[in-house]
Design brief:
The protein is of the alpha+beta class and about 550 residues long. The protein folds into 3 domains: about 325 residues, no CATH class; about 90 residues, no CATH class; about 110 residues, Immunoglobulin-like. Helix content is about 45%, strand content about 15%. The protein is built from 19 helices and 13 strands. The strands form 3 sheets. Strands 2-1-3-5-4 form a 5-stranded mixed sheet, covered by helices on one side. A 5-stranded mixed sheet has the order 7-13-12-9-10, with no helix packed on it. Strands 6-8-11 form a 3-stranded antiparallel sheet, with no helix packed on it. Strand 9 and strand 10 form a beta hairpin. Helix 15 packs across helix 16. It starts with a helix and ends with a strand.
Length: about 550
């Protein structure tokens, strides 16, 4: 069988089979939580989003315009996934199809995850394209290659911010680039193309930086962060062969500046995120952009250096069988009661139960960007995420959706029993949901209070000035005094979050450029984190109306 696949004329057959399996899986696998969230992205196209740059939204928009189902959401991902394999093959200087197929057979994540509508897939593809065009640039520094190199870097950045690491480690591998005017021209092209997103970040107070650099940080380091990361890398690049491919890629000697760039990128990215585990949990998939360097370098080590193929030959069939089992499970829940990625199954059923309970009212979910996204995709009805002060923000804190619900009766839903401790939940295929009717709903999460600085010491009179930013671009309806402004304060990991009242109401904020907020001082010195929020639903925590910021010696 292996010899059959080593003939060059069968490479297209293998790629076609790869694409057909991906299309089938994409069509019959329900959306994961994040995929549904990014689908909502695509319904609100913009130059940026709270979590990510806009590439994923644009690609979903294109595919969904053709097929209004899961396949449409994932169609562009399948195309880019196959395109990545084609580019990776082109980057291999000394080819051996047997080695190429054996490596791909063992890389289960590329087979299974290559269909998912997440930013990692365009990042992997545009990273491969970047390396392909960088090699061309090294061979001939003409205007065509300069323009294409600049374009490829911009496309990487528009896919996911992590792409900047590849450029950084490329430069580190070849400092001579800094002396080349054409390289700087490529950087200028990238900057010009990426400027609309940078401007979006600026006009929205850089929410992505705030989230990734401040809000995601763990309270304290735990060794499990590092151990989970290391284990995740071995599984990510092949449940059975990931360790071997990484070993071969590290071991192989590089022969030119291009291979040095790939090796620097491979090692640099892995080390960078290993160090990042000391600040918090690092997801295994954050390193996916090194898929192409790993494949190319491991392949060259086997072909050029004669590294052993025995293990790859021994496990390629078990690897494909394992992938097949997972493929089937992703499409069909043949293990009912065993909760392995339950988000992939029964989404139409649980959203239908919630819809029945809502009885025609718009559904507002508490502290979940996943649930309203799934609800809108599978039921086609309006939904929204109300993020309270104890949760993290999401793109729902930026979309102009909330005002469409002002004054309406809504159904408030959550899967968190803590908000309804004494009530019986509604049983669904995804567990219990709790809810209640809220007449005359009003929330004001797009009214943001911005401190004069992100970190400051205790004021003598306990007063702090905040700019008031109205992102609704319309006059806010205020009933009476409106909701009360409250604040949550905590000290990690000593003091748990506590919510306190201020002496201000919504009426005190509307129409103001800034306000002075009185915060009583504590007798205990320390560094505290702090958030502001407005009441929206009686008996619930206030909403998110500020970023997280710090006060010293409050």
């Amino acid at each position: 069988m292996i010899r059959f696949f080593t003939k060059n004329q069968y490479k297209n057959t293998i790629l076609a089979l790869w694409a057909i399996l991906a299309l089938i899986q994409a069509c019959f696998t329900e959306l994961m939580d994040d995929e549904a969230y990014y689908w909502v992205y695509s319904r609100h196209l913009d130059w940026g989003y709270f979590d990510h740059p806009p590439m994923i939204a644009l690609l979903i928009k294109a595919g969904y315009a053709i097929f209004h189902n899961e396949l449409g959401v994932r169609l562009a991902m399948v195309v880019l996934n196959v395109g990545t394999l084609i580019l990776a093959d082109k980057l291999i200087s000394q080819k051996n199809n047997t080695v190429f197929y054996l490596i791909l057979a063992g890389m289960g994540a590329m087979q299974l995850g290559g269909i998912l509508a997440v930013p990692d897939i365009p990042l992997i593809f545009f990273a491969a394209l970047y390396f392909y065009l960088y090699r061309n640039f090294l061979e001939a520094q003409n205007w065509k290659n300069t323009l294409l190199l600049g374009l490829s870097m911009a496309l990487m950045f528009y896919s996911k911010y992590h792409g900047v690491l590849l450029v950084f480690f490329t430069v580190l591998s070849n400092l001579h680039l800094l002396k080349l005017p054409r390289f700087w021209m490529a950087v200028l092209i990238t900057t010009a193309l990426f400027f609309p997103h940078l401007y979006w970040q600026y006009t929205h107070d850089f929410p992505s930086l705030q989230y990734h650099l401040v809000e995601r940080n763990a309270k304290a380091y735990h060794i499990s962060f590092t151990l989970d990361y290391l284990a995740g890398q071995l599984l990510l690049f092949g449940p059975l062969v990931g360790w071997l491919l990484l070993y071969y890629a590290f071991k192989v000697p590089v022969k030119d500046s291009f291979e040095r760039a790939m090796k620097f990128s491979l090692i640099g990215v892995l080390v960078f995120f290993a160090i990042s585990t000391f600040k918090g949990r690092v997801e295994a998939n954050w390193t996916v952009m090194i898929f192409t360097p790993l494949l190319v370098l491991a392949h060259q080590g086997i072909v050029r250096q004669g590294y052993s193929l025995k293990f790859l030959k021994a496990v390629w069939i078990p690897s494909l069988i394992l992938v097949l089992v997972v493929r089937v499970y992703m499409m069909w829940d043949f293990l009912p009661g065993v909760r392995i990625r339950p988000e992939l199954h029964h989404n139409r059923e649980w959203t239908a139960v919630v819809k029945e309970q809502a009885a025609g009212r718009p559904v507002v979910f508490l502290n979940s960007y996943q649930q309203p996204s799934k609800y809108m995709f599978y039921q086609g009805d309006m939904s929204f995420s109300l993020n309270t002060i104890r949760s993290r923000r999401s793109q729902y804190n930026f979309w102009p959706m909330e005002e469409k619900l002002w004054g309406k009766e809504i159904w408030l839903a959550t899967s968190d029993r803590n908000y309804f401790p004494n009530e019986k939940g509604i049983l669904t295929a995804q567990g219990e949901f709790f809810g209640k009717s809220v007449p005359g709903f009003h929330a004001y999460t797009l009214l943001q209070l911005i401190p004069a600085q992100k970190e400051f010491g205790r004021a003598k009179d306990g007063k702090y000035r905040f700019a008031v930013k109205n992102l609704y671009h319309q006059e806010l309806p205020v009933i009476g005094n409106g909701p009360k402004l409250r604040y949550m304060i905590w000290e990690d990991p000593v003091m748990p979050p506590v919510v306190w009242d201020t002496d201000l109401y919504l009426k005190d904020l509307v129409g103001k450029d800034s306000v002075d907020l009185y915060i009583p001082g504590s007798k205990m010195p320390g560094k505290y984190k702090f958030k502001l929020g407005l009441d929206a639903v009686e008996g619930m925590d206030p909403t998110h109306n500020s970023q997280v910021f710090r006060i010293n010696d409050l």
